[in-house]
């Protein structure tokens, strides 16, 4: 659709799509339609509203859940509450609860009105899903799944599945999840196993070793679920409540998104910003969040300046020190960032744990120290040749070794310590680290210069 | 297994596992066994070798493919070529080709010997998979899949599937991939659809709209495949050659790993290091790669020092400039990193594209400029109060605005430009950016000071 540039072309394109959809003949994937609708929204509010209003609810349900949060947030300004309720009722429960959550961010009242127009069952499910904390497994689950009883006949259950699929109630089915008469979770059987059994059998006739029993309690951290998916190569994971009753499932495609979200958060945190605010459309909100971190950085930069200020007399008497001093700080900052980033990432991927702390710190200190000696030699020679003062070369070399040692040590210790204290090691650790490498860099360089050169 | 600390305990544990496995009674997931085997390898080379030698090939095949590359690389030093060939023959083709690739990194001759001991079919498949470039879809595929012909009977095909599953030839099946008599790919049908049809039908009797036709050519960039998985929520993707012949598939669990690999690479590149070398066991290799980037950083730091050196007379006459100058550079570096990171990430996630370049640059410049004015005011007042020189406050304020403007502008332009030129925008962009913010920061601050204060 890269050719469609004008709002007229996009509008006509969507009118055709709506026509095709009504004739059961629309072959474009909702994701691609969402991209084009977002494009139309960028160009023309008027045409965007026109198309949104024209769009059948079941088609819009598929498209809307592919659109970014800020578009969902303001959908109540474009469509009537009744239509949004209709759209919501066509969505899977995880998408529906996300939509209502997003709308409530913008207009709590609209969200409540929409909820009140849903049937009791939908309403209850959405309210339950939205009552979970953001970071627990339950917040990401859907309640739609293929549930069967042990004494159920396979063929009967498949007829039920067929009906539910035809009514668009179920999709993306990978397992039959088996429960007892109290809805307690027993295990799952993959369709790839199930399809090989005689459908006249009951589920209880299937040998137990064909069942898998991966499940997670709804209140557990979503990261635990992500780990189960990545370690055990799951397609879907059963979610149970604290009484082991089956309440939902998470499918692998949700996990792709969660992995990318977690990684984005980590990357942004290390760079001193925040994934949630960066997804806002408002430049004010993005800028305000970044200003917060820049403010913290300003304080640490002033702290470094105070350290430099202690040595103003030294600098006055040898201005070459002012010329060279950023080099030591910069090299420390860079070496520290390397260590910090690798440590944070390997902890996040579960490749290293607190037990390995000693080993990691040792490794990082050795690497940093060896590089410290190499660059100490290089910069020592350069400083000597540049300013023709041999002892200046010695001073910068020694302070380079000291600062790269601290870079390696603190680059490893800071995230390990934060993680151990239950704090996300990506958030704020960069600022703490550069404070250390700046202060140590300036202090060691100017302090040694005062001792040795003057 | 967190309690098993000594090598004796771990050795006994694995002897029990081997016993259980032989009795078809091992319920521990290979991933968890791989973790424990890695632990044993860390503690005792001797016990590790003893267990590796004892382990039945089919069990070891499952465990070894969950172990890190560097363990696979040196497995030829632990086991005989014959046993490794045996293990390789039990693996899925993607895991087998990865193992041979890893062994060849360490000992090309051993890899060739092992290949020569495989049967011709296995050997040919592994050689084909390893002939792909690292970053194309074909390099990640497996050749094992459930392939059916249009005129084939569903029940017949399922009997074949059952047999292949019982022989451990097939696993993780989500679709039947349908081909014509020339092996040309026609489409796929999900098991969740297939299970609902009367198994007495032929595939050609299934209505065509139940088929999906997602496929990708083996020579396409793996990132394209990742995008198809994340956009279209696929479970598996058919891989075809340039003549549309079906040659393999990629499954969703591989995509989890690839997403995490891509994200790790991005994160490490931005921090001035490299994901591949960080995965090495040797501190020498890790340190050497980091030294490379530190060397580049040293050059840019010296460049910044040269800029400072231009103004040594100015600093000599007002040493407060030396005290304050790192603040401007540091704030520019931080604001620039925020912009750079967000731009790189949003391009990688496909949220923004080259077409949006103007919009992104505008957004980033506005945010940076507004923050520039805020922090210019703050630092201007602080500098005035600290040194009691009003014009010093004016100088630092103006240079803060200038540097945060460049930070926003170059933080957005550098990655967009690199991406447009086909260069990975995460690699090297941080160093280029901090060179800009250092040089602009020092030059504007000291230059303005020379003009205004002296």
Provide a descriptive summary of the structure in words.
The structure is a homodimer of 454-residue chains. Chain A has 20 helices and 6 strands. By secondary structure, chain A is mainly α. Chain A folds into 3 domains: 7-131, MgtE N-terminal fold, CATH 1.25.60; 147-266, CBS-domain (Roll), CATH 3.10.580; 275-453, Tetracycline Repressor, domain 2. Chain A is elongated, with a radius of gyration of 30 Å. The interface between A and B is large, with 94 and 94 residues.
In short:
Chains A, B: This is Magnesium transporter MgtE. Chain A is mainly alpha-helical. Chain A is built from 20 helices and six strands.
**Order of secondary-structure elements of chain A:** HHHHHHHHHEHEEHEHEEHHHHHHHH
CATH superfamily of the largest domain in chain A: SLC41 divalent cation transporters, integral membrane domain
**Cα Rg of chain A:** 30 Å
| Largest interface (CB < 8 Å) | A-B, 94 and 94 residues
Shape assignment of chain A: elongated
Q: Level of helix content of chain A?
A: 55-70%
CATH architecture of the largest domain in chain A: Orthogonal Bundle
Distance between the termini of chain A: 71 Å
Multimeric state: homodimer
So how many helices of chain A?
Answer: 20
Overall tally of domains of chain A: 3
Could you report the average pLDDT of chain A, rounded to the nearest whole number? 94
Examine the coordinates and then state which fold CATH places here, giving the name of the CATH topology of the largest domain in chain A: Tetracycline Repressor, domain 2
- Unreliable stretches of chain A (pLDDT < 50, length at least 5) are none
Secondary structure class of chain A reads mainly alpha
**Describe the biggest sheet of chain A?**
3 strands, mixed
Write down how many β-strands of chain A occur, each being a DSSP E stretch of 2 or more residues.
6
Main location (chains A, B): membrane
Family (chains A, B): Belongs to the SLC41A transporter family.
Subcellular location (chains A, B): Cell membrane; Membrane
Transmembrane segments (chains A, B): 291-311, 317-344, 365-387, 393-418, 430-453
């Amino acid at each position: 659709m890269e050719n469609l540039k004008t709002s007229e072309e996009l509008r006509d394109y969507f009118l055709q799509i709506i026509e095709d959809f009504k004739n059961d003949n629309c072959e474009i994937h909702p994701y691609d339609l969402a991209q084009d609708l977002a494009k139309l929204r960028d160009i023309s509010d008027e045409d965007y509203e026109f198309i949104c209003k024209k769009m059948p609810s079941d088609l819009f349900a598929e498209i809307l859940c592919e659109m970014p949060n800020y578009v969902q947030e303001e959908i109540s300004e474009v469509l009537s509450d009744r239509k949004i309720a209709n759209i919501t009722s066509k969505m899977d429960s995880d998408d529906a609860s996300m939509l209502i959550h997003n709308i409530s961010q913008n207009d709590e009242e609209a969200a409540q009105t929409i909820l009140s127009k849903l049937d009791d069952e939908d309403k209850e499910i959405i309210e339950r899903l939205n009552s979970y904390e953001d970071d627990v497994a339950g917040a990401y689950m859907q309640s739609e799944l293929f549930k069967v009883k042990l004494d159920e006949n396979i063929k009967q259950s498949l007829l039920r599945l067929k009906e539910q699929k035809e009514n668009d109630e179920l999709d993306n089915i990978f397992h039959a999840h088996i429960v007892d008469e109290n809805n307690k979770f027993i295990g799952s059987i993959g369709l790839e196993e199930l399809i090989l059994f005689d459908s006249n059998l009951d589920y209880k006739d299937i040998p137990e070793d064909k069942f898998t029993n991966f499940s997670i309690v709804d209140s557990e951290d979503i990261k635990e679920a992500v780990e189960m998916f990545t370690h055990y190569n799951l397609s879907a994971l059963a979610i149970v409540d604290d009484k082991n009753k089956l309440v939902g499932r998470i499918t692998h495609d949700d996990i792709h998104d969660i992995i990318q979200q977690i990684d984005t958060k980590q990357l942004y945190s290390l760079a001193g910003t925040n994934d949630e605010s960066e997804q806002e459309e408002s430049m004010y909100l993005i800028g305000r969040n970044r200003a917060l971190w820049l403010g913290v950085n300003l304080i640490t930069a002033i702290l470094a300046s105070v350290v430099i200020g202690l040595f103003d007399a030294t600098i006055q008497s040898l201005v070459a020190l002012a010329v060279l001093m950023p080099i030591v700080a910069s090299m420390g900052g860079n070496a520290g960032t390397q260590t910090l980033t690798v440590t944070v990432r390997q902890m996040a991927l579960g490749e290293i744990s607190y037990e390995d702390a000693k080993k990691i710190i040792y490794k990082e200190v050795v690497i940093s120290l060896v590089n410290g000696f190499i660059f100490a030699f290089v910069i020592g020679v350069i400083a000597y040749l540049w300013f023709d003062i041999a002892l200046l070369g010695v001073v910068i070399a020694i302070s380079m070794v000291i600062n790269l040692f601290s870079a390696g040590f603190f680059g490893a210790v800071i995230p390990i310590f934060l993680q151990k204290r239950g704090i996300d090691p990506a958030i704020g650790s960069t600022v703490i680290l550069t404070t250390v490498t700046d202060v140590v860099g300036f202090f060691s360089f100017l302090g040694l210069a005062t001792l040795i050169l003057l």
